[in-house]
Amino acid sequence: MIAYLLVAALSCDSALAALFTPVSPRVGRYEVCATDEPVDAVMAASGDVHYAAGELLEPLDAFGRAGSYNRATLTRLYAGRRVRVVRGWRERAGRFEAITLLSPHPDASLTRLIPGTMIVTWSVPLTGPLAR
Question: Is this model's pTM higher than 0.85 or not?
Answer without folding.
Answer: yes
